[in-house]
Design a protein that fits this description.
Blueprint: E1 10-14, H1 19-30, E2 34-39, H2 42-56, E3 61-64, H3 70-80, E4 83-88, H4 103-124, E5 128-137, H5 150-169, E6 176-182, H6 189-192, H7 196-209, H8 218-230, E7 238-241
The structure holds NADP nicotinamide-adenine-dinucleotide phosphate (NAP).
NADP nicotinamide-adenine-dinucleotide phosphate binds at residues 14-15, 17-21, 39-41, 44, 65-68, 89-93, 112-113, 116, 137, 139-140, 182, 184-185, 187-190.
């Protein structure tokens, strides 16, 4: 039965206290896994730990961790080893027009969304049991340019490329490497980088144009992540969960 496909497995989610990461942790628990979630904010960690435990009816480990801190991440992964699946949705988001280009912010964004997950995956490769997996999170901006989101598109493209390469680099360790590439998902990050008016226009624009005429839900990305974890014949895959946005003529 699909719902228990993660029985006996251990799933670690860095960035698992909100949005897509939280939904992934919650679904992994429902599918039978032991789950560890981590993120930077003490408040998010406490809230997520409590809510996930209530939802699962059993304890869940929730810890504070900044995925950009390589030493702390190495220590965190070693303490929770061995585990089966590592999901890496934890990152900041920025939106920046070319007029407002700020090199420091652009580099910090790459540190958050590319380098943090890269080093976590690299450090985790000796802690993941054979048959396990790593899941990255990129995004639609690699496939459909979004104004003000050049850095987003670039980092998403880098993550997609890294996914295909690491699937080869780690195959001898028996680790599959995949990526969920979300479209516009209603988690709050889109609102965080826009005014209320801009967001309303953006939501309307996407909902009217893409074949599935609404924004995505975090649970829909979670389901994609769990598919990638549990299907042993899938590696190097970039799985779009985007309401069909790429098919817009
Ligand atoms: N939602 C969308 O429309 C969309 C579209 C395309 C791509 N994506 C990608 O999908 C992934 C998840 O997005 P989301 O919408 O679920 O984001 P979200 O709701 O903002 O959640 C992000 C999570 O990551 C944590 N986090 C952020 N930086 C971290 C760090 N340095 N170390 C550890 N944890 C960190 C946050 O908690 P703390 O603040 O406590 O650290 C939070 O738990 C991201 O990579 C995002 O770029 C999302």
């Amino acid at each position: 039965m699909a719902e228990r496909e993660l029985d006996g497995k251990k799933v670690v989610v860095i960035g698992g206290t909100k949005g897509i990461g939280y939904a992934t942790a919650e679904m992994a628990l429902a599918w039978g896994a032991d789950v560890v979630v981590a993120s930077r904010s003490a408040e998010n960690v406490a809230n997520a730990g409590e809510a996930l435990a209530a939802s699962a009816g059993r304890p869940v480990t929730a810890e504070q961790l900044d995925g950009m801190d390589r030493a702390a991440t190495a220590d965190f992964l070693a303490r929770h080893a061995p585990f089966d699946h590592l999901a890496l949705p934890g990152s900041e988001v920025i939106r920046m027009s070319m007029e407002d280009l700020d090199e420091g912010k652009a580099r910090a964004y790459f540190d958050s969304k590319f380098w943090g997950p890269f080093w976590a995956a690299y450090q985790a490769r000796t802690h993941i049991r054979r048959g396990g997996s790593i899941t990255f999170y990129s995004g639609v901006a690699n496939r459909r340019p979004i104004e003000g989101y050049t850095m987003g598109g670039a980092v998403d493209g880098a993550i997609d490329a890294m996914t295909r390469s690491l699937a080869w680099e780690f195959h001898e360790a028996g680790i599959r490497v995949n990526c969920v590439s979300p479209g516009i998902i209603d988690t709050g990050i889109g609102q965080a980088i826009r005014t209320a008016e801009e967001w309303a226009a953006w939501e309307r624009y996407n909902s009217e144009r893409q074949p599935v005429r609404r924004l995505g839900h975090p649970e829909e990305c979670a389901r994609a992540g769990l598919y990638l974890m549990t299907n042993g014949f899938v590696t190097g895959e970039i799985l779009a969960v985007d309401g069909g946005v790429e098919s817009i003529p």
